[in-house]
Structures are given as C-alpha cells and as structure tokens.
Amino acid sequence: MPVSLTAEDSFFAAVDAARPLAGNVLMDSGFSRLLFSNEGRRYLATRGRWKNDPSEAAGKPRTGPPEVRALDKPVADHVIAGHAEYGGPGSFIVDMQGIDAFLFARAKYFRDEAARQAALTLGLVQPDTSYLRVGAAGAPPTADHPGGEVLEHSLLHGPALAGSSRTSSGHLPLGHEFSAAAPLHTDTSSGLLDLRSVYSHTAFLPKAADPARSGPPPGHLLRLDGVPGGLNALDAVTAYAQAHGIRCYAVRMFVSVADETDPPAIVGRVLRRLPRRRLRTVQEATDIASEQTFRLRPGQELHCFGTHYPRRSVDWEMLRGGKPYEPRGHIHMALRGVDADAQQHAVSHLRDLYVTPGTKCDVILTPVTEVVRVEPIVRRGNRLVSRCSGRTVIDEFDRISWRRLP
User: Fold this and answer.
1) What's the rounded Cα separation, in Å, for the pair 16 and 160?
2) What's the pLDDT at 349?
3) pLDDT band at residue 57 using 50, 70 and 90 as cut-offs
C-alpha cells in the first residue's frame, strides 16, 4: 500500500462512488468534449493527448542534471515501493478549473465528484482497475471544517471511482503564519468531504497488472543527490523531464533527514483566505498567502504530490509579465511521521525544496499522455464562455456535432 489507508488512521475517510451523469449530457462526435452538469453548475470537459519523448524521435542524446540518478529497481522503503506499483499506461490527469477561478475570484466552488464524473464518462477509467489519485486542490472553510490547501491522496476503484482516502488540508489558525493539518472529513460527514475550491489538479495512476513483477517500475524512479547549500529539487526534476522529452507527468517526492546537522530546506505557501475580487497585481496574490521557509526534522517525512503539463492561462501570464503558470508543476506537500511544530507548514503548496547532502530524496516521475481539462461554462447565444474569465471557450456551438447521452 502506498500509505496505510485504513480506518485505524485518523485521516482515513471513505470516498463515495461518483454518480452517473444525468440530465442534459452532450458529447461531441470525436468523443473528446463533454458537456454536463453537477449540482446545477454546467461544465465543459475536454480530453487531450500529449506526446512525450520527442527527443528520442529526434535522435537527440538524453542528458540531465548530474545530481539526478535514475534507479533501475524499486528501493527498499515500503512506502516508495508501494507507490511504485502505480503508474504507467492508462495514467491520466484531470485538471479542474485551471487557475482562472483564483485569478478572477469567480466560480470558486465545485464538487470533486464533477472531476471524477468527467473522467468516467470520457472513458478513461477501467472497471477492474485500482487507481492511486494524487495531487493538489483547495477546500473552502465551512462551519465545521477549516478548509485550506489540499493534498489529494486516495485509492479508488473502477468502475465508479469509490474507495478510501488520506486526503488532508492545511489551514492557518488565527494569528499563525504556519499551517496546521486537518483530515478532509468531519465527525458528522459520512466520508471524504466533496466540496472543493478554486482548483483541483490530480493524477489517476492505475495499479500495475502484475504487482509481483520484477525489473524497473513504471515511470522513472529517481534519487536526488544533495549539494552544499541545497540542490533546487523542482528545478532538477524539471530539467530531467525536459532532457527526456517528458512534457506531461505526475510527480511524487519523498524526503527525509539523513543527517540532522544538514536537513533540507522547504518553502511552502498557504492561503490566508480565498480571493474576494479579481487579482490585478502579483502583490495582491502575495498579500493573501503566508510563504514560509523551514527545515525538516528527524523522524519526519515530506510527501509531495503533483502534476505537470504545459498549462496555458493567457490572463495569468499577463498578470505575471509573460511567465507561465506553474512551469515546474503544481505540487502540494504534507509532513508525515513526527508532527509538524509551530514553525513548520503541516500541509501546503510546495514552492521550493532544497536538497542538502544530509537529505534523502526519492522521486517517482510518471509520464502521462491523457489530460482532461474541466472548465465551468455558460452559454451566451451560440457561444460557450468561461464562468471564470468570461473568455469564449467554444465560438460556434451549433457547428459542432453533439450527441445526447442517455
């Protein structure tokens, strides 16, 4: 098991099956676009494919940072070995809402079920397969839960993507600059809370058909060698992916202290609150977050899960002076083992990680070819427009051949 997802774990929660879509459900003739509703909100889901490994096709030599070593067999650590059983062909990413809901402070709330419904209806889920779901999301504060930055971590099963979860959220207690962790459930909830906020960017990684197989794991198992002052892990992993022609992937990082005199440095960010109006400057985004640097302690493990592909957001790039959205991947993290102290983020968005010689850092990088983008939309005349940005998503709705699903 990647992590003990059992009822004995205080973070454990059951994940309910995604309901079949009903009502006005339309799919285009190419089976790549889906129009559906969830809880009265209308969405457009678009299935796209990404080609990895163009460098091999071009005959270019594969190089990468010397501090990143590819391992040819799973490591002895039971957590990493368990994770290495998931990935390979059939992996996919569901990118719910991009970054526009955060930027425009519109359509900020949605049900996680909608992301799973899109994947199921577009035919990406195999009925007899288990999926490890990992990545980044947000949860809104409610009367009985603090919400916060979410590290998605679930084991789900086809055909309805029900299962179990250790998903957690990191929130800032009043007057604090470092986050506290909370399981994404309450004493009164029947299972994992389904309400999410702003975005959900997660990978679904199928279990290998033969768990007793020998040889290399699906994907790339990497060991990062620290350097004095700290190797920038996100830069190093990105450079490795680029050198191997991997444009779209899921990443899982496992970090611990090998020498307590030289631990890794972590930079994490947690929102103080959701944006209330459109962000006009980078400073406005900075002002509603707490970005902190801290060290990992002996007995702790840092688990970081996220996704990467060349995400495009015209309005975000305009805000950032042309800089793309999350060019090194959108990754969230959680401390496990010894509890976080008052000067550590327990769960947060991972902004940077510096690997020292006193750090053990293993990475599983899983190439992915299928991405489903789900965007909240409304129809205006013959156009479909984003409920976040107001930009046109489909210009001539009637020119597309749609079929109604039963």
Assistant:
1) 9
2) 98
3) very low
Q: What is the pLDDT of residues 231-285, one digit of tens each?
A: 999 999 999 999 999 999 999 999 999 999 999 999 999 999 999 999 999 999 9
Question: Which residue would you say has higher pLDDT here, 373 or 3?
Answer: 373
Cβ atoms < 10 Å from Cβ of 210: 8
Extract the tokens encoding 236.
Answer: 């190093």
| 8 A C-beta contact, residue 109 and residue 199 | no
The tens digit of pLDDT for each residue in 206-220 reads 998 655 555 455 789
Main-chain phi, psi angles of 212, to 5 degrees = -95, 10
Is the torsion defined by CA of 60, 61, 65, 69 positive or negative?
A: positive
**Distance, CA of 331 to chain centre:** 6
What would the two tokens of residue 82 be?
């368990």
Q: How far is CA 95 from CA 100, 313, 330, in A?
A: 12, 13, 11
Alpha-carbon gap, residue 335 to 303, rounded angstroms: 6
Calpha distance 219→228 (Å, rounded) = 29
SS (H, E, C) the chain: CCCCCCCCCCCCEEECCCCCCCCCCEEECCCCEEEEEECCEEEEEEEEECCCCHHHHCCCCCCCCCCEEEECCCCCCHHHHHHCCECCCCCEEEEECCCHHHHHCCCCEEEHHHHHHHHHHCCCCCCCCEEEEEEEEEECCECCECCEEEEEEEEEECCCCEEEECCEEEECCCCCCCCEEEECCCCCCCCCCCEEECCEEEEEEEECCCCCCCCCCCCEEEEECCCCCCEEHHHHHHHHHHHCCCCCEEEEEEEEECCCCCCCEEEEEEECCCCCCCCCCHHHHHHCEEEEEEECCCCEEEEEEEEECCCCCHHHHHHCCCCCCCCCCEEEEEEEECCCCCCCCCEEEEEEEEECCCEEEEEEEEECCEEEEEEEEEEECCEEEECCCCCEEECCHHHCCEEECC
Residues 6+ apart with CB under 8 A from 330: 135, 136, 201, 306, 307, 308, 311
For residues 361-384, average pLDDT: 96
pTM over 0.90: yes
How many CB atoms are located within 10 Å of the residue 348 CB?
A: 32
Q: What percent of the chain clears pLDDT 70, i.e. is strictly above it?
A: 93
Paired strand residues for 337: 300
